[in-house]
């Protein structure tokens, strides 16, 4: 009966066993995973836009090839994640509809504009750096298909992060104007990057249950702190200043102290009122509609193939 199934499930989770698609799971577990994996997949797909903006204007053939490959990787990440979500009994087309009708979220970070080429480097350094911090522990998420998707995604994210840092190092060795561009991009992306980890723990309705189910392995604040600690030495090596007067090493805690992000801004951006929300969704809808003929052709081909096999 249900209680026995529930107990068995909880014992397996507590014993660090992987939950697989055919296993019995509580409805709340399934719903939470669909919510988180779909939001994660949508973030990868929407995240192609801010960088895609610079493919045609990359300053050299080398930078263009790198950026093109990176944006393609993101499409791939979205696809693995939609596939992982489909093992939970939802359909990718249904998830896409929910994204473009704004019934499902994607990461706040992708609602900020990319104003100059240094933004491409800073997205690699800070945004992909934050993504790695958040996602490496998800390789140990209790749900097998999600955890396994994360392994490959994290390897590629690490490469993206190094790519961004190398771009910024190159610009910092350039002209004073180039150094200013890097500082300006750092100033604009720092706080939104901290917000990627979600609301503070006291204001995060999902964390407790997701931790108990081992879907999430750390709280939002734990990961945010880890990101700050990891990033400060990188900023020093790069020679940029992070725009937070409260940043300082705290010997007692063994961590850096840092200022409070503007949580009202995060709420605004999540609820649809960020600088680029409308444009991001409009572009996604357009691309989906433009692709309708491809889906129709593929379906027609599959139907013909099936009919041929029946004969
Ligand atoms: N942007 C948009 N929405 C957010 C963000 C954010 N940065 N942070 C939190 N939220 C949403 C949550 O989805 C939740 O909304 P919902 O209940 O309607 O779904 C609400 O705000 C409250 O937050 P939490 O209770 O803290 O939610 P949760 O436990 O899901 O934690 C987190 C949020 C940390 C983002 C988690 O879902 C997660 O780790 N996701 C996987 C990683 C991911 O999605 N990364 C995408 C960006 S990285 C990249 O693609 C390069």
Main β-sheet: number of strands, strand sense, barrel status? 2 strands, antiparallel
- Secondary-structure element sequence? HHHHHHHHHHEEHHH
Number of helices: 13
Low-confidence stretches: none
Q: Rough shape? A: globular
Report the strand count: 2
Overall mean confidence score, pLDDT: 97
What topology, given as strand order, has the largest sheet? 1-2
Q: Percentage of helical residues?
A: 55-70%
Proportion of beta-strand residues: under 5%
Q: What's the end-to-end separation, in Å?
A: 45 Å
Helix and strand composition category: mainly alpha
Radius of gyration: 21 Å
Small molecules (ligands, ions, cofactors) in the structure: acetyl coenzyme *A
Provide key terms for this protein.
globular; mainly alpha; 311 residues; single chain; 13 helices
Commentary on this structure:
This is 1,2-phenylacetyl-CoA epoxidase subunit PaaA. It holds the Pfam family PaaA_PaaC. The chain is an all-alpha fold. Helix content is 66%, strand content 2%. It is built from 13 helices and two strands; from the N terminus they run H-H-H-H-H-H-H-H-H-H-E-E-H-H-H. The protein has helices spanning 2-14, 27-46, 48-52, 61-86, 92-100, 118-135, 144-172, 176-195, 207-212, 220-238, 263-270, 277-290, 292-310; strands spanning 248-250, 255-257. Strands 1-2 form a two-stranded antiparallel sheet. A hairpin with a 4-residue loop joins strand 1 and strand 2. The longest helix has 29 residues, at 144-172. The radius of gyration is 21 Å and the shape is globular. The model has no long low-confidence stretch (mean pLDDT 97). Acetyl coenzyme *A (ACO) binds next to helix 2, helix 6 and helix 9.
């Amino acid at each position: 009966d249900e209680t026995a199934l529930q107990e068995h499930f909880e014992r397996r989770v507590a014993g660090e066993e992987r939950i697989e698609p055919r296993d019995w799971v509580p409805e709340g577990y399934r719903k939470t995973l669909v919510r988180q994996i779909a939001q994660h997949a949508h973030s990868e797909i929407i995240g192609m836009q801010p960088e895609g903006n610079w493919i045609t204007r990359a300053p050299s053939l080398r930078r263009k090839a790198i950026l093109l490959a990176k944006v393609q990787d993101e499409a791939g990440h979205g696809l693995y994640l939609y596939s992982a979500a489909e093992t939970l009994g939802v359909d990718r087309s249904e998830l896409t509809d929910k994204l473009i009708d704004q019934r499902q979220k994607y990461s706040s970070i992708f609602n900020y504009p990319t104003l100059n080429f240094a933004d491409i480097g800073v997205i690699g350094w800070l945004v992909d750096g934050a993504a790695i911090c958040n996602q490496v522990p998800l390789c140990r998420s209790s749900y097998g298909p999600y955890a396994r998707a994360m392994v490959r995604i994290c390897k590629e994210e690490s490469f993206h992060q190094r790519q961004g840092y190398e771009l910024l190092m190159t610009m910092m060795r350039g002209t004073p104007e180039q150094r200013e561009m890097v500082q300006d991009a750092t100033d604009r992306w720092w706080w939104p990057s901290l917000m990627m980890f979600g609301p503070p723990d006291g204001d995060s309705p999902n964390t407790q249950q997701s931790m108990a189910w081992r879907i999430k392995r750390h709280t939002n604040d734990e990961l945010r702190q880890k990101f700050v600690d990891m990033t400060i030495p990188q900023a020093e090596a790069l020679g940029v200043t992070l725009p937070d007067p409260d940043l300082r090493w705290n010997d007692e805690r063994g961590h850096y102290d840092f200022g409070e992000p503007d949580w009202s801004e995060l709420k605004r951006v999540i609820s649809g009122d960020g600088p680029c929300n409308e444009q991001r969704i409009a572009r996604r809808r357009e691309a989906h509609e433009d692709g309708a003929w491809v889906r129709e052709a593929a379906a027609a081909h599959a139907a013909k193939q099936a009919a041929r096999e029946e004969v």
